[in-house]
Amino acid sequence: MSDMGLKDVIVDIFQLDKDWTTRIVMGMLVLGVIWGLLGVIDSLMVRLVEASWGLSAVLPLTPQEYFAGITLHAERDLFGFAQQVIYAIFIYFTIKLLNIEPRAKWMLNLGFIAVNISMMFMEGPILIIPAAGFDNYFSATIWYYLSPLGIPGYSQYVVSPLFFWGWILLDAFTYIGGFWIVYHYYLASKNMKEKLPVPLVYFLMVTLMFMIGYSGVTAADVWDVLAFYHIVGLDPIANQIAFWIFGHAIVYMAWVPAVGALYLLIPMLANKPLYSDRMGRISALLYLIFSNNVPIHHLYMVNLPIALKLLQEVLTYSVVIPSMMTFFNLWATAKGADVKWNIITAWTVTSFAGAIAAGVTGISNATISFDAIVHNTDWVVGHFHAMILFSIVPAAWAVLYIMITMMSGRIWFSKGMAWLHYIGYMIGTTFLIVGFELIGFYGVVRRAEIYPRVPGLIDAEVIATVGAIIADLATLVWFLNLVLTLVKGRLVRLEGLSLPQVAGAVAMSLEWPSSISFTSPVLKFIKTHNTSKKGLASTIVLAIVGAILIVVSAVPLAFAGDAYTPQTWIWITILTIGIIFSAIGSLKGMKSI
């Protein structure tokens, strides 16, 4: 190890001595983690500004830097990190669990390049143009949905067009990677005699969720670029509605992969089959339909028809149904099982419990009367950060602990660092969420750089900031453990081992305090034989028709002029039909339901 040079370290970190799929996936993971760490630094800057104002009435950063920090944190952590890592996990397990030969290497390379260039473009300081109010520093757009913020001729604050071109590249990555994943599921479905295992159903469903959910923001992005160059005009309300097809779906794009991970992990940890296979498949379909069809529930305070808002409220409550089905199914699976305590169990239990706790606050946000009180306050920030930090990220770490060993053939370097990360992260995250929600109870709107310096509110800001620092330091411990694992972790032979057996090996190396063993695999790897070549099934045609309807639905919205016209109802009707067709056709065609 002492003779290891820089070249060897790079080869180990990026797994350059492995097959091309592993190399691309590891590249996505490494750059995703780097973007994630940069986004954490952005968020820490925001927390320090707010705490400094409360404690000493001093702003260490300019307003532009403060708001740029919020924008960069969202972009880097949600897209550069979360979405890229989610796609990487899906790509890897698609190949491994479907046991098929990967194709179209160029597509994955192109998508990998597009998403990482998109992050650079979204930062926006590269191209300077002569315009009043132009921002030649990092874009401070306070998140993107405040249409037409940043567009010359429509806003006094103007950003580089590269900011909007970065969104176009992110859209391209979503569809390039998504089509690659769905295409390989289609190839596998032609040879399958049985239905997909439920975890793979969720991975496929979330990929479809990404592509459906990005339909609106892609339309909005193209519209923004054309408006930026004064090729077409811009209707801000219609643009916002189109964007929020994505805006709520992104919550489920980020969270439902965690649900899929729980369907993968809990039966393995319990060493039992899933309680209800059918319930898992139906809940996947319901998630796909309802998660994409509530774009207006983030716009309750916008001047829109009351009837349309009430429809969105009802559809939002509908998401509770697959959630109740899912958590009952997973609880019943684990009930009575002899589960040993290890790092994978710890993160899995945290994700399960965290989703329930954070989800309850989401139901309250969906209620129009309650939302009128907490709308755009830090209560909402507390809600979605609780979902991210208590459910989404813990599930990702549980999977990554297994996945890194599968890819590198190395056992994690330090058990102590793994547990230090878990304990520190949980303490810090709890402080952060409690602080956010206390700030929201005081009525402070999110992105408030200054606020009334009253004792209770100052305490809440400090609690949130201290929690962020603790959680960030704990995450740095995980990152160091990751690098040391890839470079110096103990080599193990994994040839011929199933996924549960690899998970068992990782669990035993990271146990606390007792050992764990997996004696029988729960997942059935799909056998590929008796190949039959068939044309596109009618269900696939149905999915394609649904996709066309989703795209076409943006047309009446664009020409509506305002929300009080028949075109708005034509839009929501066509969109709903398109989503249902795409959901049923895709999952049925891929033998998922």
From TrEMBL:
GO cellular component terms, A-Z: membrane
Gene3D superfamilies from the UniProt entry: Cytochrome c oxidase-like, subunit I domain (1.20.210.10)
Source species of the chain: Saccharolobus solfataricus
Sequence ranges assigned to domain Cytochrome oxidase subunit I profile in this UniProt record: 23-521
InterPro entries associated with the record: Cyt_c_oxase-like_su1_dom, Cyt_c_oxase-like_su1_sf, Cyt_C_Oxase_1
SUPFAM superfamilies linked: Cytochrome c oxidase subunit I-like
A single GO BP: electron transport coupled proton transport
Protein known as: Terminal oxidase subunit 1 DoxB
Keywords: Membrane, Transmembrane, Transmembrane helix
Bilayer-spanning residue ranges: 20-41, 78-95, 107-129, 164-188, 200-223, 243-270, 282-302, 314-332, 344-364, 384-407, 419-442, 462-484, 536-557, 569-587
One function term, GO molecular function aspect: cytochrome-c oxidase activity
Pfam families with a match to the protein in the record: COX1
Record bears the keyword Membrane: yes
Phylogenetic lineage: Archaea, Thermoproteota, Thermoprotei, Sulfolobales, Sulfolobaceae
